[in-house]
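Inverse folding, one chain.
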């Protein structure tokens, strides 16, 4: 009979660290206490009358981060936490600890959605990155990407189960020859650090330029880089516009305009790295829920987690102070 190795879990942990466990790095560099006051305030309640004590709120928030990193459902999250030591270690759970089930995870997220705190959580972390000197303020880049929602067809009658599942807030739009259904993630990104400094969530049919001016204040000097979709938009006079020019019928771009567009595009293209990381590494260009409120939460959390991952990268490369 094989003997029980009580050091096995710790040995596996050390092996994963040596191999480069991304969750261990994220947990090591992040100060999770930044989010605790806001999350805890949402759940202020009197438990003195009895009932099962709640799960640690910060641990539950880290579960949502896990979901966003790996783009997994509530049911799959419950399974993976039970199955994977790396998930348990990230959450501070031992093999003997009770694991929140899928319904508990859903209820926790839904409570945060109803509280409308995701923008504040984003701002709180972005402010911390400002304090650490990561955001360089050498120019901003604007663009937007689609966040696709489930496409459900209406039933033949009215009031059916399928009708209740239709996301009435998500909208159809077309770009080129492609049709999209869902929402948009509008970003403002620091051109030097590639950190997201502001965002807006809208239905997919809202043009990129319609929320453009909301990102810029008349009290802060900035330089904005963007593609030709943003051309002709009115911004405060203290904002320098480096917007790519567009050609029109019977009025092609001049050679000088082409040269200027290439110069601007060298900076503007950096935002594509942000969208590429979200879509590829985080698989975050989809939304599996329903409704603008939940979509805004999902988009906001995606942007927070992207900034976390970017912060970890910059820390590891020694490109920012601790």
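Residues assigned per position:
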């Amino acid at each position: 009979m094989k003997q029980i190795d009580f050091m096995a879990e710790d040995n596996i942990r050390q092996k994963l660290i040596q191999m480069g466990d991304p969750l261990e790095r994220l947990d090591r560099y992040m100060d999770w206490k930044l989010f605790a006051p806001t999350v805890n305030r949402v759940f202020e309640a009197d438990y003195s009358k009895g009932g099962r004590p709640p799960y640690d709120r910060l641990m539950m928030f880290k579960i949502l981060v896990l979901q966003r990193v790996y783009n997994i459902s509530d049911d799959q999250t419950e399974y993976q936490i039970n199955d994977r030591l790396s998930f348990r270690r990230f959450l501070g759970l031992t093999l003997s600890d009770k694991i929140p089930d899928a319904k508990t995870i859903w209820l926790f997220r839904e409570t945060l959605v109803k509280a409308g705190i995701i923008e504040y959580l984003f701002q709180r972390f972005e402010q911390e990155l400002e304090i650490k000197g990561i955001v360089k303020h050498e120019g901003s880049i604007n663009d937007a990407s689609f966040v696709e929602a489930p496409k459900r067809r209406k039933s033949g009658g009215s009031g059916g189960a399928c009708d209740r599942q239709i996301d009435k807030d998500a909208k159809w739009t077309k770009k080129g020859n492609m049709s999209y259904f869902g929402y948009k993630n509008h970003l403002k990104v620091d051109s030097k650090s590639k950190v997201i400094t502001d965002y807006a969530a809208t239905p997919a049919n809202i043009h990129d330029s319609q929320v453009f001016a909301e990102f810029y204040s008349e009290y802060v000097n900035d330089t904005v880089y963007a593609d030709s979709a943003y051309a002709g938009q009115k911004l405060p006079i203290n904002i320098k516009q480096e917007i790519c020019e567009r050609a029109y019928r019977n009025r092609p771009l001049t050679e000088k305009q082409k040269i200027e567009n290439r110069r601007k595009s060298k900076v503007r293209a950096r935002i594509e790295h942000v969208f590429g990381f979200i879509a590829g590494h985080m698989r975050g260009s989809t939304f599996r829920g329903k409704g603008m409120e939940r979509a805004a939460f999902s988009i906001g959390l995606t942007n927070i987690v992207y900034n976390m991952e970017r912060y970890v990268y910059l820390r590891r490369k020694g490109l920012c102070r601790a």
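The first helix runs from residue 8 to 19. The first strand starts at residue 140 and ends at 148.
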